[in-house]
Each structure stands twice: as C-alpha cells, then as structure tokens.
Amino acid sequence: MHRLLPATWLRQGQPPLLSLFLASSCPLCQRSTTTPLCPSCRRQVSQCQTATPCDRSQPGLPVVSWGRYEGSLRQLIGHLKYDGHTDIAQYLGTELGQTWLDQRLTPGQGARPVAIVPIPLHPAKLQQRGFNQADLIARWFCRLTRLPLHSHGLLRVQATQAQHSLSRADRQRNLSQAFAVSPEQINALRQSTVWLIDDIFTTGATAQSAAQTLRRCGISVGGICTVSRAVVWAQTHPQANSEHIPSPRQMGHGG
Q: Does the predicted model carry a pTM greater than 0.85?
C-alpha cells in the first residue's frame, strides 16, 4: 500500500512537478525547457539580431527586421515552418514587436491608425503545413504592440513556385497575380495604414507584390516587418540601413 504524502509536501512540490510536465525540448539543442528556447540557445539566436533594423533599399517600402537570416536564427525559422514548432512564433513575434516599439513607428496624432496584415499562404500550402507562420508571428507581435491584426486582410489566390529556387526577376513574375484583398476587410483597411508581416525578407518580391495589391484597392501601405532579412541586402545597401524610416503619416502612401 502506498503511503499517503503530507499535504504540505504536495503543495510545495506542485510547482516543480507542474513545470516538469509542461517542459518540452528546445528545438535547437533538444534540452528540456519550459520556454520556446532554452537560455543558451536564446543567447545564441540573439547574436543574429541586427544593429540596423531599418532598411529603405526597397522603393516605397521600408523594411523593419529583427535579425539577419543566418546561423541559429535561420535554423529556428526552419524549425517553425517545417517541423511544426509553432511555439517558436511566440519568441520571434515578441522580439519583432519590441523592435517595432524601439523604432517608434507608431503614427502621429491625426494620422491613420496602423493595421497589421500577415503575408498569407495559398490555401493548399496552408492545408499542407497546418498554419501560416507569418500569422502566428503577427499574433504575438500584436499582443505586445497592441496593434489590430487583420489575419485575412490579404488572400493568396494563386499558387506559386517556391521563391528560394527563382531569380529576382522570376520571383516578381511568379507573384504578379498572387494576392487579393479580402472583400470583407477592404473598407476597414482603407481607414488604416497597413504594415505587412512576414518571417523572411530576401529580394522583396513578395512584399512588393502584396503592397501593390493593397494600393490598387486604395489602401495605404507603410512598410513590412520581418523577423529576418537576408544578409546580402545588408551588405549591398549599407547606407539604406542607417536611414530613419518615417512614420506612416510621413509615408503618405495611398492607393
């Protein structure tokens, strides 16, 4: 017969026992952790954070990124997208949200309010993956920044070839008719300045196509926030990273 344990012991032991049951494996090192990343890997990923988050090398589309798409950050995004570690979105979205707040990109008095729209996946890709990583990141971003999220503001209406296998020109052609604005949300978005959110920024073809689609519908676009930016852009356009990104009011983008 099992001996009954004192109630005081049970009360004292409950928190560590609960933590044990809630612990999971760190996606990078497989150590047990109760947070999306163990402290050691978190420090490692933080080394990919860029000192110059603002990039204006894209015509009419400022880019705000948390880190460089390399090393541990690249691995972490891969685990989120392809291995189903959706809890990683909490870490990435919160870090990106803090970058937004640090850049003080909130609109000035009298300006249109900011609305957040994640880059969508095509329904077939969404069904295959089970989630849209940009939307998950945006949810945590908006939880910190308190900005309104329009998860279905943009629709992916055309399946496209994987972008990583294409040249820049081919990427633009691949995405020329890929997006549409949700009819249910178009009126609300016209009252706002939209900032897009995605996990990776490479050539900018996806972001530019999405922005053009919104602007054709009379929706103002302030820029795009991404967790990571391809290192080649930071190396090719170093002067762009040091420039201040204007607020949505200063951008003045219309349809």
A: no
